[in-house]
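Appendix B, example 12.
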Amino acid sequence: MMNISDQVALVTGANRGIGREFVRELKRRGVARVYATARNPRAVDIAGVEVLHLDLLDHDSIARAAEEASDVTLLINNAGVQAGGTLVGSDLAELRSELDTHLFGTLDVIRSFAPVLAANGGGAITTVLSALSWFSFPGAAPYAVAKAAEWNMVNGVRLELAEHGTLVQGVHLGAADTDISAGYDGPKIHPADVARATLDGLEARRVEVVVDDWSRTVKDALAHDPALFYAGAFQTV
């Protein structure tokens, strides 16, 4: 078991949404030191945390954060973007920005903090993924591609960091009530539910947390013919 209250945690994208709820839940569970990072540190409004600048597209900011937060034992990768668009019609630069953020940006953070965690006994890394790691949806295809790549990156990192004693966890959810999903009209879970389920999973040393019923339904569908899952989306099926 992992005792969350014993950890020194760092949260990316801590200024709003799920990241902000991670910081609040960590403090509620008695974590004494929490590094709250954001592209705009002034946007972090939670008292009692150490605020750092960290931008997933700025390697220097990531390296500085890893140097300043050299006592971290729990890394929470939450920061991300969703630009929308389509795979066929959108500018390739827009599509690359999704991959640069979710895949290469998150990987840069992991690579920078892996030696820190190893030096501090191994610790844990958790990454907020999505049910869209496992399917696609009109208007969210670029995000889905980036999240699918990020999911398998997490799987690979888990194997590579096992020798360091580092627990690597992936977290999947459907829509949460955050700015990213503001244009989505379907049901949404509260961001605090994501933070609670994730930290509960870490305490039990679970490598995967599937937060909501929608994500569990999507995951179960992967074992079957995809035509069944996508039947409602395409008239030709």
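The beta strands are 8-11, 33-38, 50-53, 74-77, 124-128, 167-172, 208-210. DSSP finds seven helices and seven strands in the chain.
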